[in-house]
Amino acid sequence: MRFLKQHKLTLGLLTLTLLGVYGCVPKPDGEVVVYSALDREFAAPILSAFHRASDNQITPIPKYDVESTKTIGLVNRIIAEADAPVCDVFWNNEILHTVRLQKKGLLQAHDWPVGNSWPPSMQASDNTWCGFAARGRVLLVNTKLLPDEQEWPRTVAELADPRWRDKCAIARPLFGTTATHAAVLDVSMGEQAAEEFFRKVADNATVLSGNKQVALAVASGQVAWGLTDTDDAIIEKDDEMPVAIVFPDQAPGQPGCLRIPNTVAILKNAPHAEAAKRLADYLMNAQTEDRLAMGISSQIPVSKEATVRPHVLPETPVRWMDVDFEAAADRWEQLAPKLEQIFSGETEF
């Protein structure tokens, strides 16, 4: 009887030990869960190509979200799942909220396969994310309403110019690239000057729900010009609408055009860590940038090894704004409620 009790105790301890050991074993890496804020039509073909490149051994399982709040929705989901991550790789179509995840300690450092020529602003200081395939923040002009090129706006600052009152448009700066742009301006201009500028813009410009809505309003002649992204602007131009794209702030003494990259990050304690690394390396290469540059969104490569020049770019070189995205993200928590109050109204055409 004593032997039987000891035998049961030994079996129990062995079972607990095995459960402890096997409970710590990572899930098989035959799949990789991707939360993608990049539109399905652009991300899905590249994820399918990765599946083929892995000899069909790794299957990407993407999760997309709704258009208007897709980035913040996915970020909130990652934060909610922090104690038990579901996502392996976060593919963001902007950067501000990727840096927020970095600041919360939810991302894993990775040895990104980029060279020394990669811009510092496109790499995390702790190697937890990397940027690629950017969009420019541009002015889209209706050429019927403004036929004289000499009269076109040339700077983002003109959104606050009374000359353009009710004739220009901006997306409400609480989501996506417009939020990132606002945070960058808050850092570059200084808190007080930036708040004054935002108040003037809210009073002067037509505030719409998103960058696409800005591009559509310009193309249809409801406003003379607006601030939007290159991907939304080029679609209207390719559809032969009466529009022209202006890369702003190119004159001496002006800050240059802001470019906002896609970002890739691996989640800390990702369930499929090895597959996540392989996908991250696959995304962060010149061939992926070439594919995105060739697409209708005409995204702008960061790699000097990229061979495709997106047709959204002008003939003359663009001078890009020097940006510290991590500093901009540090300001977001304080800036967001202020912007919510300033841009509380929103126009519907």
From TrEMBL:
It comes from the Bacteria. Transmembrane segments: none annotated. The keyword Magnesium does not apply. The keyword Signal applies. InterPro entries: Ferric-bd (IPR026045). Keywords: Signal. Pfam families: SBP_bac_6. This is Putative binding protein component of ABC iron transporter.
